[in-house]
Each structure stands twice: as C-alpha cells, then as structure tokens.
Amino acid sequence: LASMDWSYRIRDNIDMKTVLYYTGSMADVNYFWLEREFDEIGHSVSMDETNYSRINDIAIKSDFKWLPHKSHNVRFGASYQFHKYDPSRQSLSEVDGIQDESASSLHYTGNEISLYAEDRMTFLDRIHLNIGLRYAVSGVSGKAWHRAEPRIAMEVGCNKMMDFKIFIIRIYSFTEALLSALRPLLAASCRPRYGLCPPRGNGGGAGSW
Questions:
Q1: What is the pLDDT of residues 166-181, one digit of tens each?
Q2: 92: nearest Cα among 33, 135, 35
C-alpha cells in the first residue's frame, strides 16, 4: 500500500485534493492429497497443488470542495482506476513413483473512470441532508459497462451522544478490490457515529439508525 496526495486552495471557499495510490494483495492456497493401496503391487497416488492470487490496483482521484455558504457544502470530482489480476496454479502429481508437473496462469486487466457530485445542506444546525450521484464506466476484456449510483441521506442530531440517520444508496462495485475508492464517497454521505458498516457488493441498501 502506498499513496501520495496534493492539496491546493483555489479560492477561500474552494479546495482541491488529488490522491495517487497503489494497493496490492497476495494470497496462496496449498493442498496435498495422498492415496495408497497396500496390495501386492502397492499403488500410490499423490497430488501437491498451490493456487496463487495476485491483485494490483493503481488509481488517481481528484476531489473539489466548494463552500458557497457555511451551511452548504458541495463536493465533486473524478477518478481513474487500473486493476490487474493474475491468478496462477502449480501442481505436482505422482503415480507409482512417476512424477508429472504442470503450471498455468491467467492475466486480467480492468479500467474504471468515474465522476461524482454531492450536495450537503444543514438546517437549524442539527439537520443535515445529503444528495449525491456517481457515474462510472468500467471495462475489461473488450467489454464495457456504465452505471449511475444515486444516494440520499438525512441526519438529525438528537443530542451530543446520538444521531438519527436514514439513507438510500445504490452501489455497483467494480470488484471488491476496488471498494477502497468508494469508501470516501460513501463515508461522506453516510457516516454513523457507531460502527454500522455500509452496504457492500453489487446492489443497494437502505436503513436508519
């Protein structure tokens, strides 16, 4: 995991922040299987296999924050993500002392470009309304998809210890590995004080707490 960010104040009420980051993950799964028959011939069969998963993501994201009024907050921005997935397998089998080794690997890449905007308004110092829309285009292996992800949330501050919030969110995750790019957007429009996790995966969610 690595990241770089650059912040710049365009005007007194307009800020910009650009983040470039890389994330990578590795996973190995190994299993061994052995079968023997104790007879005159003494057959034996064994298999040793390891499956590898390598995921690498590079992304850049620019956010703009505009404060037209102390009770009005507008955020908008754009992002680009490059996703690389490399699964592979290595196996070694042995039948009656004769070994056979095999290996295979695949390579997948994906791209996603997105634009978003959200509007947060405050009423009576304790009622917050947030409306946002994210539009994304993603492609992999010669195919492309586009989608719109609306969201709306309302928060009412009951007292210093408790908030009431109701929200409706629609999310289509490119892959779970790319969900990190969605978390800042989701957290900005729907952020509880006590740990209720946001909806994940392909679909939507609604609720209150």
A1: 888 877 655 543 444 4
A2: 33
